[in-house]
Amino acid sequence: MRSWCKKLIIITTALLSLFIFPSFACGMAAPQHFQIWNTSFGISEIEDVVFQEFWSFLQNEVIDKEHPGGDLAFYNELKNNFPPFNWGVYGHRLLFHWGFNADVKKHIPLVRRVNDTVPEDQKADFYKRVTEEQARRNRKIIEKLERLLGISGLIPRAIATIAYDLHILADYSTTDVQALPDIGYIANDFVQLGIMRLPGGSEYRGLIEASFYIGETSKERALNALLTIAVYLPRIVSPVFQRTGIKHAVPSTPYEEHIVKEKIRAVYFKGGN
What we know:
66% of the residues lie in helices and 0% in strands. It is mostly helical. The two termini are 35 Å apart.
């Protein structure tokens, strides 16, 4: 009887975790996001060690910091200061899954949740606090990228934009996408504030921009964007990486292009459900 009860408790706990924390249960694991980043930028195995710290920071201290089991200090601050706010059915992706350049006051999932839970006279203070935290995290991203690349200016901001958007595109591999920005928004952000700020980005603008709109569903469009990015982004960042001494691989033959696409495809379908 005791053994049966223990099994029942374990099964019940597992089922409850799926309902209480749906976005975490359905999310892409951190190592898979790292693979997407490395393949998309053409980062070699040698340089992977160098970038690992930055990927980990972007993943665990910025975008997915608030996931269940993670650091919920900021989320709890919002809940305590602006009751009855909570992330509701949106899950942890309601926070910081909006991109590097987003105006949080225009991020539709957050706006809807705030309208439903935050009193009218507190909304301005709510958005002010979220914007302050967004700015703090963005500053840390840029600080780390400037140290990593050894340069400052628009290029680190472009790399930050691209890396952030790649994470969100990868999250479209999952079923829990209601808190994510629209694919069209990501496309514009990725192109205008990402590749167009990099030397040679304009040469591949049309190919990359078009890839965001190939497919019938958002999941298909996100995948097609990732497949195209993995082929052309290494070429776009090549002048920057060469100047800063970062070793990377540029797919230059149909076979090499096929290999990087298959790497992305394998991670994408492994990460989603």
